[in-house]
Amino acid sequence: MLLLSGGFAIALFGAVPGAVAQLTILHSFGDGTVPNDGSDPRDGLIQTPDGTFYGVTLFHAGRAGARGVIFSITSSGTYSIPKNYAHPSFTSAPLYYNKKLIGTYYGQNAKNAGVLFSLSGYPNGPWLSHVWHVFTGEPADGEDPVGRLILGSDGNLYGVTEIGGSANQGTIYKVNPKSHAVEIVYSFPSNSSLLRPSTGLLLAADGNFYGAAEAVGNNPGEIYKMTPSGAVTTFYQFTGSGFPWGALIQGSDGNFYGTAVGTSSNMSFVYRLTPRGVLKVLHKFTPTQGPGVITTGVVQGPNGYLYGLSWGDGTGGMGTVYELSTDGSTFNVLHYFGDGSVPNDGKDPDGILTVGTDGNLYGVTTSGGSAGNGTVFKISP
After folding, report:
1. Statement to judge: residues 106 and 45 lie in one domain
2. pLDDT tens-digit readout, 182-223
3. In terms of pTM, does the model score above 0.85?
4. What's the rounded Cα separation, in Å, for the pair 269 and 347?
C-alpha cells in the first residue's frame, strides 16, 4: 500500500528532513554478473512479506527484439530472475497477493491486446507463469493495461487499461482472484473531454476508488472517482494543458497527493488535493537542463514527509530523489543523479519509491549504471 503507517522505519524517518543522504547501487542491469539480465526497469519495486523486492523491466539487456524480465533483489543486493520472458513488455510492477505475483503486460498483435498473468512459486520457486486473461480490445474488452493492480474491499482485484472499451478510450476492470474472470466495470466514453486513464487506482478511506486520466489533445486531465457500484464522476479537473502523471496516494491527513505534468510550460509539480476537491500546488519543478522535468508520483513516510523522483532535471539533467513537506514549505533534494558522488548511479528514475521495512527508500533508474541499462538503488537519509 502507498499509505504507510508509522509503526516502522524509525531509523530513516526519525532523522531531520534534509539531512545528507547516502545512495547505494544494489544492481546495474546488464553488467555481466547475471546471464540474460533485463534492461530498462520500470515503475519501481514492491516488497513482499519476507523482505524481498520485486520489479520488472521493459527489455532484455543486449538482446535485440527480446523483452522484459521479472526480477527479485534483497536489501543487500542479492539479485535473481524468477522469470525471463521472450515477448512481454512490462511497464508496471506486479501485485503481491496470496503468495503470487499478479501483473499485466502489453500485447504484441491484433489478437492480443494485453495479458493479465500470475507468477506462482513464492518464495523459493519453481516459478510458474499462468495466463489469467488475454485482453481483446474494443468494444467489449480493454487494451494496453497500465498501472498496478490493487485489491478491493470486496476481494476482487482492480485495474485499468489505457485504451479499449466501448469507445476505445480505456476501461476499469475487476478480476476475481479465484476464478480469474475479468469484468469491465466502466468504459471511458468518447466525449468532449477525451480522457484516458493513465495510472492505476487508489482505494481511498471513503470506500471509493480514485484514479488519474490524462488529456488527449489539448484537453486538461483529471482525477476521477468511482463508487463501489461502478459510477464514475470527475473529482477534479486540471486547467490548461496539464495532466496528472504518476500514482495517486492518500496521506495520513486524509488528503490526496500526486504529481502532474504541464505540457505547454515544461513545468511539473507536486500537488495536494483535499477530499472536497480543492487543489494546492506544493512544489514546481523548473527545467534546469534537458527538455523538461517529469515527476512520477510520491510516497509518504511515517514522519509525514513526501518522497519522490524526478527526471530531466538536476546535475546534467539526470534526475533527483527529493523530499517535500505536505504543506509545501520544505523541499530538499536527497540525491542528484550523475553528480559524481556515486559512480554509475543511474539516470532517469522511474515510478514510485518504496519504503522498505528496514527504513530505507528503494527505487530504479531506467538507464545509466555501469552498463547503461538502468539500476536498482537504495537511499538512506
Report:
1. no
2. 999 999 998 766 678 989 999 999 999 999 998 776 667 899
3. yes
4. 20
